Amino acid sequence: MSKLVTIYGGSGFVGRYVARRMAGEGWRVRVAVRRPNEAMFVKPYGVVGQVEPILCNIRDDASVAAAMQGADAVVNCVGVLNELGKNAFDAVQAEGAERIARIAAKQGIATMVHISAIGADADSDSEYAQTKAQGEAGVLEHMPGAVILRPSVIFGTEDQFFNRFAGMTRMGPFLPLVGAETKFQPVYVDDVAKAAVQGVLGQAKSGTYELGGPEVKSFRALMQQMLDVIHRRRIILGMPFFVARIMAGVLDIVKFVSFQLFPNNILTRDQLKNLRRDNVVSDEVKGFADLGIEPATLESVLPDYLWKFRPSGQYDEIQRSADNLRT
Fold first, then answer.
1. What is d(CA 38, CA 16) in angstroms, rounded to the nearest whole number?
2. Cα–Cα distance between 151 and 208 in angstroms, integer?
3. Angle at the Cα of 145 (from 184 to 105), degrees rounded to 5?
4. Contact residues for 4 (Cβ-Cβ < 8 A; gap 6+)
5. Where are the domains of the chain?
6. Which of 28, 170, 252, 270 has its CA 20 to 30 A from that of 123?
């Protein structure tokens, strides 16, 4: 019988790519998610019965244990950018990661891959960064041979980075940015999945890997590249941090007084703290080169999914060609 991997958060942005690749490797894939009925799209990643979404609450020991029963390896892709309800940073990114590792060790599972993030730091003033570091520590406490991946901002068809800002260009002539000069090293989602698969297959040595693409650019430069791809002209406005701090504070208060009916997916005070720091790979840790992976460039991927934000969508190139012929 083929081997089994349980992927927590396997229907999420990164998890679905890991699930597809593990199915391609011939493994049975158990996709552990909160809402299995919304994750049925993962089933065609393999043959009938090879990929199965199952119910799991990462905050519950029994649920986590049941999801990994009989597994040969586990992958944790669960994380949150914004706290909502019981899915707080500490409950998901610190306690949840530690819970998976602890139960995996108890069940005798030898292999674990954990998706963290560049910037994970127990001494950070950001709760997001703190809990990412606490999650890593919890994983290593119980699974010292785990592979930990720290990607920079991840891009791809379903991302909430380029898609979000490209959508904002439809609203007016200005594109406001907080931390316009902060540097990022965007990494393609499928490259992160390749690294995770190597960890599961034992092709990557245990330890921490920081994953960034081949280009380091400021937030402003990334948005200009996005505008070039979608054939739109917008004035990029760098918002001062003191103004952003006031705005984030007001939005967080509205979230609180509305009992989270307003989730504040715009800008939180914690996100603002992270936007003050560059999000790039360190020279002191392992990366793609140690895995033998050549990461994809932005130029080779962005046009494949941002075309829908062009003025004429999929017909924009045809229209531009026709305009050139008329001139």
1. 13
2. 11
3. 115
4. 27, 28, 29, 30, 70, 71, 72, 73
5. 4-155+186-213+280-293
6. 252
User: Quick one: angle between helices 298-306 and 219-229, nearest 10?
Assistant: 50
Integer CA distances (angstroms), 297 to 186, 214, 220, 300, 303, in order = 9, 6, 17, 5, 11
Number of other residues whose CB lies within 10 A of the CB of residue 32:
32
Contact criterion met (CB below 8 Å) for 39 and 53: yes
Question: pLDDT, tens digit, for every residue of 136-186?
Answer: 999 999 999 999 999 999 999 999 999 999 999 999 999 999 999 999 999
Q: Which residue has the tokens 């592979």?
A: 147
How far apart CA 286 and CA 166 sit, in angstroms, is: 32
**pLDDT band at residue 315, thresholds of 50, 70 and 90?**
confident
Q: Is-contact 8 32, C-beta < 8 A? A: yes
